[in-house]
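User: Structure with S-adenosylmethionine, tokens only please.
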Amino acid sequence: MRPPNLLAYCRAGFERECAQELTALALDMGVSGFVKARPDSGFALFQAHQEEMGIELGKHVEFRRLVFPRQVVRVGELLQGLPTGDRAGPIVAAARALGTRFAELTLEMPDTNDGKALSSLARTLKPHLEKGLARAGVAFDPKAEERLHVFFVGTAAAYVGTSVVANSATWPMGIVRLRMPSSAPSRSTLKLAEALIEFIPQREHATRLAPGMTAADLGASPGGWTWQLVQRGLSVIAVDNGEIDRKLLDSGQVKHRRDDGFHFRPSDPFDWMVCDMVESPSRIARLAARWIAERWCRETIFNLKLPMKKRYEEVERCRALIDEALGGGGYFLRMKQLYHDREEVTAHLARR
Ligand SMILES: C[S@@+](CC[C@H](N)C(=O)[O-])C[C@H]1O[C@@H](n2cnc3c(N)ncnc32)[C@H](O)[C@@H]1O
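Assistant:
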């Protein structure tokens, strides 16, 4: 059985943007429905007016195209009133109705303070669920196409659903957990680290992000993004009027240019341009498109600092600006609110 609703996990405070994105996607496919998205809950639920349409929509969602959802799971109705003595029972029954073979079982909860309080419950319940699922004839095989999710929204309430492994986030709760490297000069370094994991498949690093390549880092101070590139063996021009970490400069791979990132022009093309300047998103989007259009770089990763209001609209405006600047084709663009992004999204733009 295919569950008809779409459950999207997101950063707390971005439920509205998730809802707008899911609604727009559904409309695009001619599916009408409504979204339940309580502010600061860390998730949004899309329910189609007609179940069959919801099932069709679930089949056609392309996870990689979504910006705000960290994960999308196809779920049925919320299981409520789970009995304290046997929470596993109703969850196992709901899971069994979805299939008998899954790649893995993930127990998740919203990325909020209330959600965190549910993690010990999930840990305690996991062995009971595994036993119950085995007894019900549900098997786990890493080669299976779908993953089984149990998403707790309270001690007695959970959604049970599935995601297609190849069309979803790899990480539990859609969160890439990274350790802060002790020698990196700023926490922002984690944004670029995550962006590189998200946007550039590891198997392509040898050809797209390899030692000896060159990069410009616009708005580089104090050097967290530059640090990520230097770690991968790239030579970097760090553009910023602010200071760059002394150890980075001593590495011999970094040149500091005290310049305005909007005025800086490369004398030779770079492999990469990365940009974390604090500026209006549309200005940054135009700049990134120009770097690609002028062939000043082959690929770019840039961060868009979103306004307080109309954040979804702003992202769509930037997408349209890039499309217009690049003549509507010949490029590849992905935008994503990363786990390490706050009121921001990060984008990757490259020539096809
Ligand atoms: C968020 S910080 C960058 C942090 C950096 N990515 C890191 O990982 O350490 C933004 C930087 O953009 C710089 N900036 C803002 N506007 C700029 C401009 N027009 N040209 C160059 N740098 C700019 C600021 O000086 C500031 O250092």
